[in-house]
Amino acid sequence: MTSGIDGRSARGYAGPRVRGRVPTASEYRAEVLVGTLFVLTIVAGFALLVVYLVGGDTQVQGVLLTLAFGGLGAGIVVWAQRLLPTRLAIEERHPIAPALTAEASEVAAATREAEAGFTRRHLLIGLLFGAVAGLGAALLMPVLSLGPAPGRDLFVTAWKKGSRVVGLDGKPVQASQLPIDGVLTVFPEGAVGDAMAQTLLIRVPPDLLRLPPDRMAWAPDGYVAYSKVCTHAGCPVGLYRAIQHRLICPCHQSTFDVLDGAQPSFGPAARALPQLPIRLLPDGTFVALGDFPEPVGPSFWNMTSGDGA
Ligand code: FES
């Protein structure tokens, strides 16, 4: 006793209808459409990766990404709406005939048709996996764009113990160059122009300084050095209001108190500009006693406001 999945009795058995019957013209068109959309996704996905690897073009990459996602999404929707069966299918067992009866012949023919249909569905499934792989290739782009890991780079600058303090001309800065309330941009010798090492050397009346006791020795004779990289978003802190002893960042007006360890007193910056430990040599030049004690510049994932390194 056999009944077809579309509700026919055993005598009306029509083979494994869902997976195997010969598709209608509409289903065939749907299969071709789904296959085409998946192929579009595969081609667009890998083309996107190639375009990225040869230099990239934002507009082309945008179009290809749209095609990759759109092809996969549209293919799945068409497949679900036009090819997946929506009926309940029950197939009962039928007796095994010793010889090939007319009914068995009909079953065999239906099975052959089924295998043909099943092959097409296999092809579509293969294309679906191919489309997912194409999309995966496209999604490699953000991973490739991450670049190398920063390592310790965020924690260190070019300043080292013994680095001579030089000006933009690469020559050692003389203490006599700076009058009271004067300011100079300085670098470690051999790293002039280094963005992370740029430092402001400021001279203030020594008796006004309110530095922590262990840092007073880092400001000999009122010469105090702070990182020039704003702790908010990394702009160079380029303005010094001498009358108030305040450094001001031009980007978002963060204001730092030079006398109080460059603590922020206004604006979005949440931590002080790191102070560079320096020493005044007998010849009137300066050397660093080491690197900044904290990372310079904006806070990051494991360096938040007010934290040390
Ligand atoms: S970068 Fe300095 S205040 Fe924003």
Break the fold down into its secondary structure elements and pairings.
Elements: H1 17-20, H2 25-53, H3 58-82, H4 102-138, H5 140-144, E1 165-166, E2 183-188, E3 199-203, E4 223-227, E5 239-241, E6 246-248, E7 255-257, E8 263-266, E9 275-276, E10 278-280, E11 286-288
Antiparallel strand pairs: 1-2, 2-3, 3-4, 4-9, 5-6, 6-7, 7-8, 10-11
Helix pairs in contact: 2-3, 2-4, 3-4
The structure holds FE2/S2 (inorganic) cluster.
FE2/S2 (inorganic) cluster (FES) is lined by residues 230, 232-233, 235, 249, 251-252, 254, 267-269.
Describe the protein.
The protein has 309 residues and is an alpha+beta fold. The chain folds into two domains: 10-144, no CATH class; 165-288, 3-layer Sandwich (Rieske Iron-sulfur Protein). It contains five helices and eleven strands, in the order αααααβββββββββββ. The protein has helices at residues 17-20, 25-53, 58-82, 102-138, 140-144; strands spanning 165-166, 183-188, 199-203, 223-227, 239-241, 246-248, 255-257, 263-266, 275-276, 278-280, 286-288. The strands form three sheets. Strands 1-2-3-4-9 form a five-stranded antiparallel beta sheet, with no helix packed on it. It starts with 16 loop residues before the first helix and ends in a 21-residue tail after the last strand.
